[in-house]
Amino acid sequence: MTNRAKAGYVAMLAVCFAVAIAAGWTRLGAQFDADVYDFLFGLHPPRSEKLSSVVVGIDEESLADGGVGALRRLLAEALPAIVASNPKAIVVDVILADRGNPEEDRALAEAFAKAPNLVLATGLRRSGAGWDDPRPEFARSAAAIAHVHSDPDPYDNVLRQIPLEKAFERRRVWALALEAFRLASGAGPVVEDTKGIEVDGIRIPGRRDDARSMRIHYLRPDPPSAPSIPEVPLARVRKSPGGLEELRGKVVFIGITADSAAQDRHMTPYSFGHAMPGVQIHANAYETIARQDFLRPVSNLAVVAACAFLTLAAGWLFWRYSGWRAFGPAIALLGAVHLAPYLAFRAGWVFPYAPPFSTAWLSIVSAATAQYFLVRGRLGQTEAEKERYQRAIHFVAHEMRTPLTAIQGSSELMGRYKLPEEKRGEMARMINAESKRLARLIQTFLDVERLTAGQMALKREPFDLRDVVDVCLDRVRSLAERKKIAVAGEPLEAVIVEGDQELMEYAVYNLLTNAIKYSPTGTAVTISGGMKGAACHLAVRDQGIGMDEQEMKGLFRKFYRTKKAEQSGEKGTGIGLSLVQQIVSHHGGRVEVASTPGAGSCFTIVIPASVPQPGS
Ligand code: ADP
């Protein structure tokens, strides 16, 4: 694969990664994550055996005696029965900020005064004017004042988490569920740091900069319209002055559950259209803390790292392997991406689903597509090479057939007729020369193939490069004369090269014939050489058609011919230069090319050589 293709592949994967991460954090991604979260909730509900809370619901039946207006009287009447049941804490999820009927307020204040571990509710006014604190006569008896705020998700209004902390005008208030837990467990003040808080030795995750948001691990109501925490109607409590066994030793959450009156209802992951009353939500938050059944969000950095790993894995797989060896592990990777959020959820971690999901799919599909096109490209290249090869074979066969026909014809004539001695001699010489030429061509071709395949060792005999140049100049003379090209060898000093003289002759001969073939009539070709350091530079220079940068790139590839060469009408196979290069490199040298279109080319063989010592 070329460097450009590699860079393109890496860039494509980087774009996949960036797009997938960005998509994962869009609103659509967030909604997708939330839906998966709710689905996982259904798959893995918490166990509800040892509950330590009870809801005293102010339901329709409880309100039958006076309606919402009679709430304080109803509460004042029920509280002695709740106190008599000896609960761990009493949490009142009703904001008692306004002045009511003085008679009823006094009765309620008296009832509160007898309630141990009492938590009363406050909240921020919607107008932003401050806290809606309970009236001072009630607040006096409260062990804690706690907020009742919730934090429904902005997109679908489902309540998945609550802020444990709410601050306004330099006053910070803890959530109802947290204060209930703190009082019930008899713990001192909340200990806090930036990443979480600690109550009674229990660490509750929740970052300060995120209002210490805590996900509620709801108990699953069955059916969805049923309460998820056991509920006792307030009416029943009022009728049991001696106390109720269900409330003993429990944290009692009192709040409105009547459909007609409860305004703080919310959808939960289990809702299926049935909103849950606020008091049930607070009790569920309390149970989450009591069970220590926290669902922690995985950090953004971990998500990005996981996504980066997925992109790298997909990229590597399709880079390294193809077919099932790439697709098999890729499918396994996708499976893991789909399963991981579930396993993480079971272990108490909330892993967003959209970013890894989109990263894995996008990276795998892109990498596989890139591989497909790359393979197709290579296939196309091979096809083209095959076609060139066939053409070349065709041509080589043709080139061989012409001299063979001549040889065949002449030998037949000689055998059949009595020819004059002179004619016979001429024919015999022609037969000899043609067959030698053919044999040499075939031999060179085979030798280089064998050398390259490692089936043959290079001959290592010292020879004088001057002899090689002389032989070649002799051989190309007739060709040059035919094209009226002056071929000149500049006087060359004696240089000794170790190797195969015949192969070297082929190389130099080939450069000379190319120079003549690809030059117009009337130009000149020169061959010159000399030592530079430990190497001899042997240059063949012409004033021919030349080549541009692009054309020079494929020069040493087998069967490569430039367009200009094809158009020149000169016959060729495109094998010559590839053989030249292989021969020279087997001798430890290299071929350098300099060329200007229309002005000429210079091919230089640079080869390790030595100057013979006098007397040797
Ligand atoms: P052939 O000459 O049989 O086509 P070669 O392998 O010897 O094959 O050369 C490959 C190609 O390189 C030629 O077809 C021609 O396009 C280009 N070439 C080689 N030598 C020269 C030259 N001296 N001037 C211009 N082009 C050349």
How does this model look, in words?
It is a single chain. This protein is of the alpha/beta class and 616 residues long. Helix content is 48%, strand content 16%. It is built from 18 helices and 22 strands. The protein has helices at residues 3-24, 27-43, 60-63, 71-84, 102-113, 136-139, 176-184, 234-238, 278-291, 300-320, 324-346, 354-416, 421-453, 465-483, 501-517, 549-553, 563-567, 576-586; strands at residues 53-58, 89-92, 118-122, 144-147, 161-163, 165-168, 171-174, 191-193, 196-199, 202-205, 213-215, 231-233, 251-256, 296-297, 349-350, 461-464, 486-489, 496-499, 524-532, 535-541, 590-596, 600-608. It has a 6-stranded parallel sheet with strand order 4-3-2-13-1-12. The chain has a 5-stranded mixed sheet with strand order 17-19-20-22-21. A hairpin with a 2-residue loop joins strand 19 and strand 20 (535-541). Helix 7 (176-184) packs across helix 9 and helix 14 packs parallel to helix 15 (501-517). The longest helix is centred in the middle third of the chain and has 63 residues, at 354-416. The protein is rod-shaped and about 150 Å long. The two termini are 51 Å apart.
